[in-house]
Amino acid sequence: MTLITDVRLRRVLDSRGNATVEADVLTESGGFGRGKAPSGASTGEYEAIELPANEAIANAREEALPRLIGEVHAGNQRDVDAALHAADGTDDFSGIGANSAVAISMAAAKAGADVLGAPLYQHLGGTFRGNEYPTPLGNIIGGGEHAADATNIQEFLAAPVGAPSVEEAVFANAAVHQEVHDILADRDLPAGKGDEGAWAPSISDDEAFEIMDEAVETVADDFGFAISFGLDVAGAELYDAEEDGYVYDDGVKSTEEQIEYIAGKVEEYDLVYVEDPLDENDYEAFADLTAQVGDQTLVCGDDLFVTNVERLQAGINADAGNSILIKPNQIGTLTDAVDAIELATANGYESVVSHRSGETEDTTIAHLAVATDAPFIKTGAVGGERTAKLNELIRIEDNAV
Ligand SMILES: C=C(OP(=O)(O)O)C(=O)O
Ligand SMILES: [Mg+2]
């Protein structure tokens, strides 16, 4: 019934106005699924390769479609993703493009769910998946590679850890976003938005810490539950090998100083989450920071692990971090992403399923987070391509998908 009978690929727009890959998968019994690839700006050195959309589409049509159509069942996700790897023939998806691969992988999963008449999260996670929902991390203030002339730290993220429901958590993050707008206005600080909808004022990182602290406290009082905050430092973007340090507007920090700086901020602001505090090649520094603050906060590897089981295993062996960011397009297929989550869970690492800075209205990551019982999902706070996922989470919680 789920035998794939057609795969159609096309170029569509992403949230930055760039071309991305959309895939439709059709099955023998009329099942249909559609997936769209997101795209990063602060990409990790070890990510799977995104090709220009036209090239990715042409290569996938030539190499992947003959291995899928009439050959593979959309309901067997591991078979779909193995066919994509075989069609690609490289270890980084540079043959057909990770963008074609992930779009097809997600479209096939949705086609499989469609045939079953089940929501995607249930197809991926099974009926015994548990009853937990992820806490959304909402990007509120940001800079780095996502906005010019703003903070050095890429993302200041609201974390409504005390929210009684996904719905309350989503609205709390939106309220923090609004509160920060009001604080910026009071301080006469004009601010546009960065790629993910976070405010991108021209302020120092220290001022952003203060504003976040004030905003989450105000909204926590209004909503009546705890709201903390966290960071995506995107350390690999700050690290300069020639300087042998982390380059901030107010000077360069050595690796030791960077560890001390982040550990100090974890203490000062009770940060619950710190992503990529250090360079993507520095397992040792990650391990040092984790030894210092890993019992009080999540130290998460994004560019460090790139959703890759080999890099995660190296991190586990080195005690580097205690959490992994999961971005399906960083590795190319849902199977690879789920393998990374399973390895993480088996070793006590928390998984944080994540969007990219360039996004679409695709909602697969909301279903993936619920299917795998991920404790957190990072998918912005406002903006159509972000609210697509947040609103889908609300619907999932409400049994309305
Ligand atoms: C979402 C992120 O940004 P990008 O998609 O640009 O890598 C991130 O770094 O976590
Ligand atoms: Mg990151």
In short:
The chain has two domains: 4-117, 2-Layer Sandwich (Enolase-like, domain 1), CATH 3.30.390; 135-397, Enolase-like C-terminal domain (TIM Barrel). The protein contains 15 helices and 14 strands. The chain has helices spanning 53-63, 65-68, 77-88, 98-116, 120-125, 166-186, 205-223, 235-238, 255-269, 283-293, 309-318, 328-331, 334-346, 364-371, 384-397, and strands at residues 4-13, 19-27, 32-36, 135-142, 155-159, 228-232, 239-240, 245-248, 251-253, 273-275, 298-301, 323-326, 350-354, 376-378.
Topology:
Layout: E1 4-13, E2 19-27, E3 32-36, H1 53-63, H2 65-68, H3 77-88, H4 98-116, H5 120-125, E4 135-142, E5 155-159, H6 166-186, H7 205-223, E6 228-232, H8 235-238, E7 239-240, E8 245-248, E9 251-253, H9 255-269, E10 273-275, H10 283-293, E11 298-301, H11 309-318, E12 323-326, H12 328-331, H13 334-346, E13 350-354, H14 364-371, E14 376-378, H15 384-397
Parallel strand pairs: 4-14, 6-10, 10-11, 11-12, 12-13, 13-14
Antiparallel strand pairs: 1-2, 2-3, 4-5, 5-6, 7-8, 8-9
Cofactor: Mg(2+)
Pfam family, one: Enolase_N
Protein name: Enolase
